[in-house]
Each structure stands twice: as C-alpha cells, then as structure tokens.
Here is the input.
Amino acid sequence: MPIEHVAPEDWQEAVVDDRGRIERIPYELCVLVSLRKAIRRREMTSPMSPATTPSEISRSASGARLPARRRETQMSTRHIVIETRLGPITLVAKGETIAGLYFRHHVRRPSQETFGPEVADSTDPLLNEAARQLRHYLAGRRKQFDLPLAAEGDVFQHTVWDIVKSIQCGDTTTYGRIAEQVRDRSLAQRVGQAVGANPLCIFVPCHRVVGSNGSLTGYAGGLERKQALLKLEEPPAVSAGRLF
Here is the structure.
C-alpha cells in the first residue's frame, strides 16, 4: 500500500517496511514506541529536568488527567460518620467503592487508623450517596441499595456474602440453609463466622440471617439493632399482628 493512501488516523497503526510498503503493527507497540520517542524528545530539550514516566506523558498527551481532588478521592481511603436512629454509623470508602459500614460498638470493628481521614460527606459524592441511601432505608423509603461495594474477604466469605446479598427485604434465612447453598450443611458454623465477618452490615443484609429456630442469634451491631432492622423490614400484615 503506498504511504499516501494511509489515512492520518491510521498512521500510528502502520509502519513502512524495508521495501517501502505499509504494514499494520499492534496498537500497543505503537503506543510504546510513541512514548519512548516522547521521552527522548523531552530529555533532549530539558536535560536537567527529572525523568518523566510513560504514564505521566500518556496523561499529559491525552489531556485526560483528572483534577487533583478527584484523583485523591479515587485512590484514598476515607470515612464519614453519620447520626442515625441506630446510633452513629461509620461509612468507609476506598477509591470509588464502599468498603465498610460499622456501628460504634461493632464486633470485629477494625482500628480507626484503617478508615483513613474523616471527610465531610458534602465534599465526597460517593459517601454522600451512600449516606443518603442509608437514611432513606432507615426511614422506610428504600428496600434495596444501589452502591458500588467492595468487601475484603476470602473466597468462602465472598460466596456467603453473595448469598446474603440475595436475601430480599422482608425475608430471612438460616445459617443452615446458606450452608446447603454452598453444598455442605456441615459448614453452618463456618457460615456463621463468615456472616459475622461481613464488613458491610445493612448494605449486605446479614441481619436477615437467623438461627434454625428463628432466634436472632448474634449480630455484629448488637441484637437490639438486628431486631430493629428486621422490624423495619416486616411486611405491614406481620407488623400489625405483633403483640409487642
């Protein structure tokens, strides 16, 4: 193919061989070659300036570099504390995901240092949205959450948490049933440990997991909160039939 027939937008994907013909080359290789050339040009024009990494040149060339505040928000761990009917709740974000929800006296609550700095929810869109949805849920105006969640755990824990996430508002299940879903009823105790280690209480509704006889059993936020959450989610007919 004559070089004059190569469209400008295709130049970075073509190369002239030793016979003057145009051949395609992988896009990734073109990018690498372009970055190397950019580095060499910069070194020649600014010999005293510190070396620039390919990623920095790439961001500069594309014009897609994010504002400093947004880059910091995307990469950092930070938290907010909101007042609710269940007491103060800490919401933790890591990058662009919600990574934790903890009550003040929370079983297995991580150390405060792991939460990162406290920020104002008005300055953090992700935490602000998480707080808004949580308040609406506690006010009875929301039954599900639409948030990017990222809990840290092993494969078995994530298997259990995925099952817990599928429990609908107003329903409950037992540790034994979850063990059956992971195809080994003998793992009920291990299931209980995984449920107890859930770092995203309410968002991943572990309060909907009860004992085999319907008893509340344990809850990282305390049994009073578990009872309050289950009562909040009760269908109207069930709630109307309560004697207490």
In short: DSSP finds nine helices and seven strands in the chain.
